[in-house]
Design goal:
This protein is an alpha+beta fold. The protein contains 6 helices and 8 strands, in the order βααβββαβαββααβ. 36% of the residues lie in helices and 34% in strands. A hairpin with a 2-residue loop joins strand 3 and strand 4.
Length: 177
């Protein structure tokens, strides 16, 4: 699995289309803002490719030694076929030496897609991520934090948002018990 920095119009279009399809509107940041932050070196927008074939997207936020996998999706026809596992392994290798973590929708709260959330969490736990026992409400959505072979404090987590999107946006994230 190759991680290709998406800077060309064709890859950006494929990524934006998958981004819009895979994530609910309430969880999406304006894609143009993500692209702007990539030009500033604060985010990465990766096309996940296997033998030149577009398989998915990975969008990260970066601050110091921290990398937050902000968005991760595999194209529908390739889901359940090992591409997600290969993509995570490629991300772990690419960010070797950095503290890599992500947010998932809470599996603790009642929701219409609770079984999907539990399945997603199992996928990440099966692929070497661990629970941090950190919970946050991020712009109205309850999230759990998982990490790859690292620990993290809530302040460090918020620090990524402060670095990438500023104090005002970071102040919208609330720690949950």
């Amino acid at each position: 699995m190759q991680l290709t920095n998406a800077t060309d119009a064709i890859r950006i279009h494929k990524i934006e289309s998958l981004y819009t399809e895979a994530f609910p509107a309430c969880e999406r940041k304006p894609f143009s803002l993500i692209c702007q932050k990539q030009s500033q070196g604060l985010t990465d927008i990766f096309a996940l490719e296997e033998n030149g074939d577009f398989c998915g997207l990975a969008i990260t936020m970066k601050a110091e030694d921290l990398v937050l996998l902000d968005y991760f999706a595999i194209v529908r026809e390739k889901r359940g076929k090992g591409y997600g596992k290969m993509a995570l392994e490629a991300l772990f290798a690419h960010f070797n030496g950095k503290r890599f973590f992500l947010e998932i929708e809470s599996t603790l709260a009642e929701s219409a897609n609770k079984s999907q959330r539990i399945k997603r969490k199992r996928f990440y736990l099966k692929n070497q991520l661990t629970e941090l026992n950190l919970y946050a409400n991020v712009f109205g959505t309850d999230m759990e934090l998982l990490a790859y072979q690292t620990s993290l404090t809530f302040d460090e987590y918020i620090g990524v948002y402060k670095t990438v999107y500023g104090q005002e946006k970071a102040a919208c994230i609330k720690r949950l018990p």
